[in-house]
Write a structure and sequence with these properties.
Elements: H1 2-11, E1 21-22, H2 24-32, E2 37-40, H3 47-56, E3 59-61, H4 81-94, E4 98-99, H5 106-113, E5 118-121, E6 131-134, E7 137-140, H6 145-152, E8 156-164, E9 167-173, H7 180-193, H8 201-206
Parallel strand pairs: 1-9, 2-5, 2-8, 3-4, 3-5
Antiparallel strand pairs: 6-7, 8-9
């Protein structure tokens, strides 16, 4: 069962335009018409966050990664074609709503003031970032979702991703309180509950 769940995360790349199933927390959030900072861990990658941002017109804070804008899948070795295909799908989905980190945080505040919620995955290692503990390892992580939500005076929610009936199911939990490490501890617990869903094991084991 766990293996099937993990395969579904990759399957989303083949059907990236399938509808999203929305849980009660997300439905209630949308009914209130709120603007917020939504933060999550890389459950089944970042396609879920991207799909939600595209549908809602929100913004995703992320660095391009993993060969994006690289060679076309049909031009690489067969063993590399799946990764190249994924790298081709991600920019198509994400670039229209993407904010690349770096420089002044004014782009974040401007997006929030413009009525766009921000979606941040807070488990992605980044050289030079503060060292924090996640999933039993200390890594430089670009924390900041808690601080950003407080500075912008908007609520902070956690994104929960899963699959139901073969479709991506997203929900929100919150508003959340606590500091940055408390948020990472929350995601550590979720990673331990669903280790098959996390796509960053290699980065943390090798880091």
């Amino acid at each position: 069962r766990k293996a099937i769940e993990r395969f579904r995360g990759d399957y989303v790349y083949l059907r990236p335009d399938d509808p999203i199933l929305k849980g009660p927390g997300l439905q209630a959030f949308e009914a209130r018409g709120e603007t917020a900072v939504m933060v999550g861990w890389s459950a089944y990658g970042m396609i879920g966050a991207a799909r939600l941002a595209v549908e809602r017109g929100d913004r995703v804070v992320r660095y391009p990664y993993g060969g994006e804008n690289g060679p076309a899948p049909e031009t690489v070795a067969p063993s590399d074609r799946w990764a190249a295909f994924q790298a081709e799908v991600r920019p198509r989905l994400v670039q229209p709503v993407q904010i690349v980190p770096g420089g002044s945080p004014i782009a974040y505040v401007r997006a929030l003031r413009g009525g766009h919620s921000l979606i941040i995955l807070q488990d992605v290692p980044e050289a030079g970032a503060p060292v924090r503990r996640l999933a039993g390892a200390e890594r430089p992580l670009p924390v900041g979702a808690v601080r950003l939500a407080r500075a912008a005076r908007v609520p902070l929610y956690a994104i929960e991703a899963s699959f139901r009936g073969g479709l991506l199911h997203l929900d929100l939990d919150g508003p959340l309180d606590g500091d940055e490490q408390a948020l990472l501890d929350r995601f550590s617990a979720r990673i331990r509950e669903q280790p098959w869903a996390w796509t960053l094991w290699r980065e943390f084991v090798q880091g």
